[in-house]
Amino acid sequence: MQVYDAPLRDMRFVLNELHNDDGFGDLPAFEEFTPDLTDAILEEASKFCREVLLPLNRSGDEEGCTHENGAVRTPKGFREAYDQFTEAGWAALASDPEWGGQGLPEAVNKLVEEMICSANLSFSLYPGLTHGGTTAIEGHGSDELKQKWLPKMVSGEWAGTMCLTEPHCGTDLGMLRTKAEPQEDGSFKITGSKIFISSGDHDLTPNIVHLVLARMPDAPKGVKGISLFLVPKFLPNADFEPGDANGVNCAAIEHKMGLKASATCQMNFDGSTGWLVGEPNKGMAAMFTMMNTERVSVGIQGLGVGEAAYQSAVWYAKDRVQGRSLSGTKYPEKAADPIIVHPDVRRMLMTMRAYNEGCRMLSAWVSRALDAQKHSPDADVRAKAEDFTALMTPVVKALFTDLASESANLAVQVYGGHGYIRESGVEQYARDARICQIYEGTNGIQALDLVGRKMGAHFGRNLRSFFHPVSEFIEESKGDGPMEKMIEGLERAFGALQLSTATIAQKGLADPEEAGAAATDYLRLMGLVAMGYCFAKATKVAGLQLFFGTEDKAFYEAKIKTATFYFERILPQATASFLAIKSGKKSMMALADDEF
Amino acid sequence: MQVYDAPLRDMRFVLNELHNDDGFGDLPAFEEFTPDLTDAILEEASKFCREVLLPLNRSGDEEGCTHENGAVRTPKGFREAYDQFTEAGWAALASDPEWGGQGLPEAVNKLVEEMICSANLSFSLYPGLTHGGTTAIEGHGSDELKQKWLPKMVSGEWAGTMCLTEPHCGTDLGMLRTKAEPQEDGSFKITGSKIFISSGDHDLTPNIVHLVLARMPDAPKGVKGISLFLVPKFLPNADFEPGDANGVNCAAIEHKMGLKASATCQMNFDGSTGWLVGEPNKGMAAMFTMMNTERVSVGIQGLGVGEAAYQSAVWYAKDRVQGRSLSGTKYPEKAADPIIVHPDVRRMLMTMRAYNEGCRMLSAWVSRALDAQKHSPDADVRAKAEDFTALMTPVVKALFTDLASESANLAVQVYGGHGYIRESGVEQYARDARICQIYEGTNGIQALDLVGRKMGAHFGRNLRSFFHPVSEFIEESKGDGPMEKMIEGLERAFGALQLSTATIAQKGLADPEEAGAAATDYLRLMGLVAMGYCFAKATKVAGLQLFFGTEDKAFYEAKIKTATFYFERILPQATASFLAIKSGKKSMMALADDEF
């Protein structure tokens, strides 16, 4: 059964208690967002997700989207839910008040995003893609474009998409062929085909604003000749309401492994009118603005599904009775003990729990940096925050989504045979989560971004934004009795990460394939250290609360237990990653292409 | 695209070259199965799988089984394929000639099984379950039952099933409720409901023979009161052809994550006539005869899917062009290099390859033991072989299927966005493979079987059947120059396994939850060592071939390269498993049930 209640206590912990000393500060811009107010927002969001979005998750998966006579229909209930969503102002939550947004800090907004993704991942893509689009327009569009288009998009009245991929090019956008021909009025005629366009067409909004990568005539070859265009489904009329059709058509929707209530469209642009966003031939920069926002959000998607899978597994593990505890009957009043008593079921539940809590803590840290990078009054803090988010964006995207698939599959395993049946709802989590490892740049591409771009950038400045706080924490926590073993474990894993960094930097300089061969293991190693650091900090915070006395003893005790599990059972994976990195590229590249 | 060609060269390697010194000997019973003959069988099977079964794999997934008016229809083409399958004698391959079988050694048969599962996992279940049924009847049934029923089942004319699970009991069969009331003629009336019955009903054969677990009146409680019954769908008439309906009905079929062309049925038995198989109240023993056969076969299912996923991924990695090699353009004549040049794609392909080759080598070893345990003229060898298969059955089942899911998901990842689209065919492998980790005892149950039953059995005799050859091999290979690093790696991992064994044995004696908490990591560790041993042996065999000169240089060189990859990139996982085992149960069991 799909069970979900937002983990509000843990969310308040990562928002208000864990990262106060991270140097990103309390931002004056967000003074009004007091814990009382953010609490209320989280409560409301939780209610909306549980009552409106969750009940449509399985029915949406069963029904899927349909494509008839060129139009896409979302599953039953999605349109009404979307209306409620925008009417309640959820769509505008994190956007700039200048365009009608509510200016919520990312630190809070990402928690709401997590809830939405837990409740209904497919649904989350409709507002999610719109938000990616508004970010690109805000960051790169002319004032005219902003003033015209952003209010409609920020409110969610019109939706948005990102049109990048073509049949022959996904990762390698240099090969893209969609054309943009300049017109006398300053607009462009866009012609070409795009695939895998999430929310490319649907019935939720009266208009859809596509952000399309295309080439102008005589543009330089490769990625340096790509520009970004705003291309609406319907051209606005004089009142800026949807007017004439703009030659934008959905040719088909994809039949996918999961995420079935999200329409994935093949889009044709047939001389469609569009307007340039940003500078000519600088489309990749604008695209990366969307993409980076989206990459963190895809990480959050993973976390969201992981949490829902965990809760659904816990529910079943308490409900299903089978066998007796190895240490003697625990529930004599029942025909058998609930399977939560069995160590191997515990192993699965605790693993999921540790993944989710670890990712949530890391995500809260990154979200605070996202806020500081935009809103800190201190230029140094802004720069440091930017370094940190640049470094952590690929980690959040790839780590969270890899762990999400693992969690979803563990949930299926907890259900046993019943988990393989669609009716249980858990196999949907495994199918839905699977896409998060792929879109917005596969996780392999994230790893390459980390070692190839982020690791060496500014002579290692990005790295230092993460390494410094970790090594400071280790130094100041040494000799802290109850945490001794944890700090030792963290120090060992951190040492492996530092050594790996040096190895990759050295080898990779002479041979980029060495960096490529190490990339995925290096990203995982960094993720393991980052979660370990968060768990150790959390243990310290919890320990202090327990020492000084708290009404919330159970929460802090459970936090320390989960942290201990993480250190004993999950962090040891760091050794395997380290050894794999150390071995270098040789065995990976030894077979000739035709020997496969 | 689903691509599959049986890896015949590698199959001949594991069959004829790798395990000749394993002590299980060349069996006189199989003298007639010369390499020439087995080659011809493997060639023929390969052709049948590629030409008949593979083309029905994706269409079977799309169409699925249907349940109308109480009858199950398999997807288009399945019936014709099944007819061809039985007519060509594939169904009878491994069965005893006494009942019309062809008496093929398991060592060869398991390779054919692998091919069938690669080509069409859903299809494989129809003959697979029948074979499980014949094994139980052969092992426990009366002569009358055998002579009546086996010929029909061995030929595949009639199919079979195993009816164990009920809605409230899967793992914990002690709770089962299906009743068996004795009749005056010695038969029984069987009444009850079973779920998750693979091939419970279908249109491939005119009759289906169910093997049903049920309780006689006044039977002892729990598993000691369960008996096994043979219950046909139609009662045979005087000519032993299907006669009157026997009150066996399929109430519904399950809608599953994958394996959609295999009918998973809810079966009702309504006073159906059945005959006791084996002794009253000894049904669990008979059930385990089926189950153990099936468990190894489910491992092979995993290997089959893993191989198909690997081949499909290799095909795509050579076909899809995207980006340029980090070490400079490799295919200047193409718009971009095929993605097989990228180290991270290599990582995924090599991982799948190493998993498949490792599992195939281990499976070949176990299959030789299965043959020796039945057919060796030497009682000591038979006993040793039985020890070894008992130990390895849970390892083969759980390890192979865990790795299969990993491989299938890696294949999806190699395809990127295209892999998430059903049309590509690879996401089907991920959905199909997923069930193998669950049915015939979840992989957690396999791990418990290993630590709780197999590890300590006969004062460690089962273990010694594996530990002895490994330690002998390490001793005799030390100082073998080119293999030095490999042997060191194997020795380290084997040391970790021995230490873990001692730890679990010691702690588990005082507290069975300690063994439970270590089980899954211990099984993985043993699997990693077993594959490592096989890869090291293979390297030795290949090295000798290369040293003395061989026409098949490319094969042996590739084998050594894959083995090297295994030792450098995969075996290091053993350390993580070892550390997890060492940490004990405490952090796993620390949260109270209601703290979740």
From TrEMBL, chains A, B:
<dbReference type="InterPro" id="IPR009100">
    <property type="entry name" value="AcylCoA_DH/oxidase_NM_dom_sf"/>
</dbReference>
<dbReference type="Pfam" id="PF02771">
    <property type="entry name" value="Acyl-CoA_dh_N"/>
</dbReference>
<dbReference type="InterPro" id="IPR009075">
    <property type="entry name" value="AcylCo_DH/oxidase_C"/>
</dbReference>
<feature type="domain" description="Acyl-CoA oxidase/dehydrogenase middle">
    <location>
        <begin position="162"/>
        <end position="270"/>
    </location>
</feature>
<dbReference type="InterPro" id="IPR013786">
    <property type="entry name" value="AcylCoA_DH/ox_N"/>
</dbReference>
<protein>
    <recommendedName>
        <fullName>3-methylmercaptopropionyl-CoA dehydrogenase</fullName>
        <ecNumber>1.3.99.41</ecNumber>
    </recommendedName>
</protein>
<feature type="domain" description="Acetyl-CoA dehydrogenase-like C-terminal">
    <location>
        <begin position="466"/>
        <end position="591"/>
    </location>
</feature>
<dbReference type="InterPro" id="IPR046373">
    <property type="entry name" value="Acyl-CoA_Oxase/DH_mid-dom_sf"/>
</dbReference>
<dbReference type="InterPro" id="IPR036250">
    <property type="entry name" value="AcylCo_DH-like_C"/>
</dbReference>
<comment type="similarity">
    <text>Belongs to the acyl-CoA dehydrogenase family.</text>
</comment>
<dbReference type="InterPro" id="IPR025878">
    <property type="entry name" value="Acyl-CoA_dh-like_C_dom"/>
</dbReference>
<dbReference type="Pfam" id="PF12806">
    <property type="entry name" value="Acyl-CoA_dh_C"/>
</dbReference>
<feature type="domain" description="Acyl-CoA dehydrogenase/oxidase C-terminal">
    <location>
        <begin position="281"/>
        <end position="449"/>
    </location>
</feature>
<dbReference type="InterPro" id="IPR037069">
    <property type="entry name" value="AcylCoA_DH/ox_N_sf"/>
</dbReference>
<dbReference type="Pfam" id="PF02770">
    <property type="entry name" value="Acyl-CoA_dh_M"/>
</dbReference>
<feature type="domain" description="Acyl-CoA dehydrogenase/oxidase N-terminal">
    <location>
        <begin position="39"/>
        <end position="157"/>
    </location>
</feature>
<dbReference type="InterPro" id="IPR052166">
    <property type="entry name" value="Diverse_Acyl-CoA_DH"/>
</dbReference>
<dbReference type="Pfam" id="PF00441">
    <property type="entry name" value="Acyl-CoA_dh_1"/>
</dbReference>
<comment type="function">
    <text>Involved in the assimilation of dimethylsulphoniopropionate (DMSP), an important compound in the fixation of carbon in marine phytoplankton, by mediating the conversion of 3-(methylthio)propanoyl-CoA (MMPA-CoA) to 3-(methylthio)acryloyl-CoA (MTA-CoA).</text>
</comment>
<keyword id="KW-0285">Flavoprotein</keyword>
<dbReference type="GO" id="GO:0016627">
    <property type="term" value="F:oxidoreductase activity, acting on the CH-CH group of donors"/>
</dbReference>
<keyword id="KW-0274">FAD</keyword>
<dbReference type="InterPro" id="IPR006091">
    <property type="entry name" value="Acyl-CoA_Oxase/DH_mid-dom"/>
</dbReference>
<dbReference type="GO" id="GO:0050660">
    <property type="term" value="F:flavin adenine dinucleotide binding"/>
</dbReference>
<keyword id="KW-0560">Oxidoreductase</keyword>
